[in-house]
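Request: How about a record?
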Amino acid sequence: MLLPFFQHDLMEAGCDEAGRGCLAGPIFAAAVILPRNFSHDVLTDSKQLSEKERYALRVYIEREAIAFAVAQVDHEEIDRINILNASFLAMHKALKMLNIKPEFILIDGNRFKPYQKVPHECIIQGDGKYFSIAAASILAKTYRDDYMRKLSEKHPQYEWSSNKGYPTVKHREAVIAYGISPYHRKTFRITNPQLGLF
């Protein structure tokens, strides 16, 4: 089972993002503040869960959390400021949207741009260690998946409803066949010569 908190003196928010490695669409981030007595037998890193489990957990997290917020940074901004800065910006946006200001922030990963003057701790693979980060990973992932499914209705040839914008072989083949969409990240290596498709 995951740990409830990194520290116990300050109001703690967990933060995570989804979509960093995608070729198309925005990056989403979520921030979640959980109650002191929070516990769950299934909640863990969203990548370890089925889609059905993620969506069921989203309902539970949103009902039980003290506060939560989900934010996004679009593909154009990603191209302007790079994906690392875009991930920081998305997390900052989510933190700002919380209706309770956190006193401590737990970040999934090893890098973060400080948010205001709130102390933080970066946890490598934190979404598999702390409930609040795992909860944030589920919200970011499911909200982004919903967004990409809607985009897929406009551009079904890229199969975003299934690949969610990630660099699958079929996604890259579609880019080569149809060109890039208005939602692709132009600074990313969208076609891969290793596929032997040139």
About this structure: The mean pLDDT is 94. The domain at 12-149 is CATH 3.30.420.10 (Nucleotidyltransferase; domain 5).
